[in-house]
């Protein structure tokens, strides 16, 4: 069949080369005569694979030595509970920055465990959604940590700079849809977490990067599999990890390194996003309602002049092998998720379809 | 390469036909032009796959209509916390049957959430480990539920009959290493859970089968992804599920159905286990220290006359393409996990190697 362009928000497109390799060795991995998913996580073959993947991720994000990298289960939703359970210590309140759907979900879950100081940072000027800069966030002195989500996947509103707060603030960031899309200064964060299913690998794996001095403060009610100290002590093998997803992530990390790492990806991501936003902005037919400074380079949302046209757009796009383009149910319209694995050709194909659709339906 | 016989305790052998199919369609699933692991869990293709897998599991285990089947993350270890969080209600104590390592781990985790009434049922007569029958379990009237593990994976000690308690008792069973190995009467259980990585599919997926009247009692501190009611309400898609593992499990369920279901598997499993235990019992070289009535048909443990010989056995076995045979670190010796996907030929190959090893090292 013809090439399919997959703009799904997650689970999302994976690098073709990675899938080809996984397919090639699916029944006989590393000459073991078995599939990687059939082998013990405690065997030397998988153990070496796990260590290498962890090191590659450490290299890619320049993770300092005083941070642990954990391979967990439960998704970002699981971390919405795990973060307060691990970090509150003897404090009872935390700052939750509300920039959209996912950061709000995190705040709601945290209310089970602490008093949530919710800070709404979304602004609206001339119909454009923006986000207040960090300098205007009214933080709470008693807060155990600040939680925010730099890239809101649903409508594609984003913060690009690393945290600028005093270094004694513990900053927690949900990077599910932005991890590995640009260089970051990990040392500015206390905890970074990300569901794998957007920029890393298959769903069912969650990456947690945690500063070592934050370990060991989990409350007594923390399920062991959510306790960062336990997971760190056992190298993420306290319980059986999702081995196939871990292996696939390792292949993605190798692919990223070969392509030039996160700096190179950032260039490509910016180029893809600029091209797509330009096509939207130059059209009178499509619109995006995020202010330019906060436009995500991972999730680009846009609408046609009406809901019926949006629906038709999605249907016709599928016929042209452009899939996963429907907007989230709470946002409507369309959304093109252009993660690392989506190349410039895919974005060009989408733009060509958009222009043709405008010509025939405008 | 020659055929490899994989006796790993988990992640474990998968049916060859299932892996072949997964390999064949890894880059283009159901003519979508994408891998199953690249597609949205909310799209119609994956949704149909998820529903079909769930129904097939319901058929295989004859799960009554008043039970929900959930596809979760976090493994059995996660359920060690989730069970008391969901089931205690306004009670404060639960009965935990200790039959070995895993049931003890479950009891330890539960102590975070309730008073654990731990009942030790292991017995020892003439050097053989047995388990007290259910009629001798001293249950606590105030207990919210009874938790037990019918098949202890590490040393292969098992209980084969369904619970026989009064129907108002809520029985929770960890079937991680025995699910789908024999028919069960689901109506005798309140909750059944199982990590997928032994008899179902890749690691990172946990099956929970829960009676509907037990939903809605989760304590306030339950992480949402562990709340059975939330997971049931959202058809296990409250958060992004491990889609590839779910899909693989669906292939395994189809394979099981085609082979004649759980009844047929039970026959085959009994035949495999009997052959292997017979080979052990007839030898003066190997021994198994589980009493006959409690010998697992999934995990067969055995030892040679000494630790050095055990080590040599494992090394030489690997050279003969028999892998995953090393015993758990806390048990030592050898362990052959003979899950559904291990065929009789594999067991015969193991026995032939055992006899050859005895001949050359006895």
UniProtKB/TrEMBL annotation, chains A, B:
Family annotation (SUPFAM superfamilies): PLP-dependent transferases
Molecular function as annotated in GO: O-phospho-L-serine:2-oxoglutarate aminotransferase activity; pyridoxal phosphate binding
Question: What transmembrane ranges does the database entry give?
Answer: none
Q: Where in the cell is it found?
A: Cytoplasm
What EC number(s) does its UniProt record assign? 2.6.1.52
Cofactor(s) annotated in UniProt: pyridoxal 5'-phosphate
One Pfam family of this chain: Aminotran_5
User: Source organism's superkingdom?
Assistant: Bacteria
Name the GO cellular-component terms. cytoplasm
The residues that hold L-glutamate are 42
One GO-annotated biological process of the protein? L-serine biosynthetic process
Where does the Aminotransferase class V domain start and stop, copy by copy?
4-350
Q: Where are the N6-(pyridoxal phosphate)lysine modifications?
A: 198
Q: Which UniProt keywords apply?
A: Amino-acid biosynthesis, Aminotransferase, Cytoplasm, Pyridoxal phosphate, Pyridoxine biosynthesis, Serine biosynthesis, Transferase
Q: In which pathway does it act?
A: Amino-acid biosynthesis; L-serine biosynthesis; L-serine from 3-phospho-D-glycerate: step 2/3; Cofactor biosynthesis; pyridoxine 5'-phosphate biosynthesis; pyridoxine 5'-phosphate from D-erythrose 4-phosphate: step 3/5
Cofactor binding annotation: Binds 1 pyridoxal phosphate per subunit.
Q: Which residues does the annotation say bind pyridoxal 5'-phosphate?
A: 76-77, 102, 153, 174, 197, 239-240
Task: Tell me what reaction this enzyme catalyses.
Answer: O-phospho-L-serine + 2-oxoglutarate = 3-phosphooxypyruvate + L-glutamate; 4-(phosphooxy)-L-threonine + 2-oxoglutarate = (R)-3-hydroxy-2-oxo-4-phosphooxybutanoate + L-glutamate
Question: Which family does this protein fall into?
Answer: Belongs to the class-V pyridoxal-phosphate-dependent aminotransferase family. SerC subfamily.
Q: What is this protein called?
A: Phosphoserine aminotransferase
């Amino acid at each position: 069949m013809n090439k399919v362009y997959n703009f799904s928000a997650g689970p999302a497109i994976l690098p073709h080369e990675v899938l080809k390799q996984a397919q090639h060795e699916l029944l006989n991995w590393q000459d073991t005569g078995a599939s990687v998913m059939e082998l013990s996580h405690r065997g030397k073959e998988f153990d070496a694979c796990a260590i290498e993947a962890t090191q590659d991720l450490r290299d890619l994000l320049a993770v300092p030595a005083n941070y642990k990298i954990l391979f967990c289960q439960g998704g970002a939703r699981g971390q919405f509970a795990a973060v307060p359970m691990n970090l509150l210590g003897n404090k009872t309140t935390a700052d939750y920055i509300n920039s959209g759907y996912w950061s709000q979900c995190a705040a709601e879950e945290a209310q089970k465990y602490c008093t949530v100081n919710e800070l709404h940072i979304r602004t609206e000027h001339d119909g454009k959604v923006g986000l207040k800069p960090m300098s205007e966030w009214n933080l709470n002195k008693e807060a155990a940590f600040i939680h925010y989500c730099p890239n809101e996947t649903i409508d594609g509103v984003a913060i690009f700079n690393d945290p600028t707060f005093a270094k004694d603030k513990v900053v927690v960031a949900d990077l599910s849809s932005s991890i590995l899309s640009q260089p970051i200064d990990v040392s500015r964060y206390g905890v970074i977490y990300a569901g794998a299913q957007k920029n890393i690998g298959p769903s069912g794996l969650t990456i947690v990067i945690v500063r070592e001095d934050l370990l060991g403060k989990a409350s007594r009610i923390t399920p062991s599999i959510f306790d960062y100290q336990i997971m760190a002590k056992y190298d993420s093998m306290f319980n059986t990890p999702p081995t196939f997803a871990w292996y696939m992530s390792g292949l993605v990390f190798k692919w990223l390194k070969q392509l030039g790492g996160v700096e190179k990806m950032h260039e490509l991501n910016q180029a893809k996003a600029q091209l797509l936003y330009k096509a939207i902005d130059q059209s009178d037919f499509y619109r995006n309602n995020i202010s330019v400074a906060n436009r995500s380079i991972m999730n680009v949302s846009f609408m046609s002049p009406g809901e019926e046209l949006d629906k038709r757009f999605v249907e016709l796009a599928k016929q042209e092998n452009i899939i996963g383009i429907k907007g989230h149910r709470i946002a409507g319209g369309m959304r093109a998720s252009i993660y690392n694995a989506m190349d410039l050709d895919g974005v060009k194909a989408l733009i060509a379809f958009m222009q043709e659709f405008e010509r025939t339906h405008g």
